[in-house]
Amino acid sequence: MTEQQIKGMRYRDNIRKAVDYVERNIKKRVSYKAAASAAGLSVDRFWHVFKLLFNETIGSYIRRRRLTLAARKLTSTGKTVLRICKSVGFKNHEVFSRAFKKQFGVTPVAYRNNGKNLYYRERPGICGKEIDLKLLGGFSLKPKTARVKGFKLWGISDVMTRKTAPLRGIRPVKKLASILKRAGMERGEKGYLVVRVIDYPCFCSSPLDADVEVFYGVRRKISGKDIKSRRVNSGSYAVFSHNGGRNSRYMAYQYIFGCWASCGSPRKDPKFFFEERRAGVMDDGKVSMEIYVPKGKTRK
Question: Per CATH, is 62-121 categorized as 1.10.10.60?
Fold first, then answer.
């Protein structure tokens, strides 16, 4: 275990209490001392553990969370920028605008006009899954941005339901492995699992529990009666790296679609995403892959 994981395990409950306190009082003036007190730690110890675990100070976290709340109000209400500025704890409009532009790359007014394409810069509240994933390791909580050029896949399609065959089960692994074998793929070559959400009930915490259409494919052309082709669209994607067990894969999706995605609302989540896996590294108890989630509209 890394120092980060060891300390995280030791102070897991303390950090959760502090985060809960901060979220309850996010619009107020929250001091280091108050957050540390909620965690049951000294100020110095709390600062060190939080910084080590999340790679930012509690002050930075609070500031970015307030700006995220402001961003959501800009796109969901008709309140003036000044009123929103004050509602999230900023007394000075200039300071608010400067901080907002630093985080989102645009002014509050510009965000109001184009916020749907910039939601990925929001800072979601730290959730239990984020803490647990930090402790497990093997998953990137902060995605990279990649510009993907559209490409064609050959493979087979499948429909999976939350009741009969959930996506989190072993079936996807076996089906993709069979396609890779048929294509004569060697260890390290890439296979793809493309998912389109059919039905996403409000009680589902991730698409792994939803009804989905899945396409298992490779970029190499293969033939067969059941073989179909599918195109992955061009666009800007958030890319999460995962190299852990199947349980952490499930938690990773709960984090992406429950904590990271826009407003944490499943009904606003992307209806399409794909996994890029490498042949020969899926049957040893670990899943090594990249998860691509579109940031906005994609095109053919």
Answer: yes
Q: Are 127 and 259 in contact (CB under 8 A)?
A: yes
Distance, in Å, from the CA atom of 157 to the CA atom of 194, rounded to the nearest integer, reads 9
What residue ranges in the chain does DSSP mark as E strands? Answer: 144-148, 151-160, 190-199, 211-218, 228-232, 235-245, 272-278, 286-294
Question: What is d(CA 52, CA 48) in angstroms, rounded to the nearest whole number?
Answer: 6
Residues 6+ apart with CB under 8 A from 81: 74, 93, 97, 108, 109, 112
Report CA torsion sign: 73, 238, 172, 193: positive
d(CA 293, CA 283): 24
pLDDT, tens digit, 9 for 90 and up, residues 195-236: 888 776 544 556 666 788 888 888 888 888 888 899 999 998
- The pLDDT value recorded for residue 97 is 93
Q: Which helix (H) or strand (E) is 24 found in, with range?
A: helix 3-24
What topology is assigned to 144-294 in CATH? Multidrug-efflux Transporter 1 Regulator Bmrr; Chain A (3.20.80)
Please tell me whether residue 249 adopts helix, strand or coil conformation. helix
d(CA 233, CA 41): 49
Instruction: Judge whether 294 and 239 are in contact, CB under 8 Å.
Output: no
Tell me the two tokens of residue 67.
């700006």
What is the side-by-side order of every strand in the sheet holding 286-294? 144-148, 235-245, 286-294, 272-278, 190-199, 211-218, 151-160, 228-232
Write down the domain spans for the chain: 3-55, 62-121, 144-294
Whether residue 29 contacts residue 91, with contact meaning beta carbons closer than 8 Å, is answered with no
The tokens for 269 are: 């989540």
Is residue 217 within 8 Å of 179, Cβ to Cβ? Answer: yes
The ranges of the chain with pLDDT < 50 are 1, 117, 120, 202-203, 262-268, 281-284
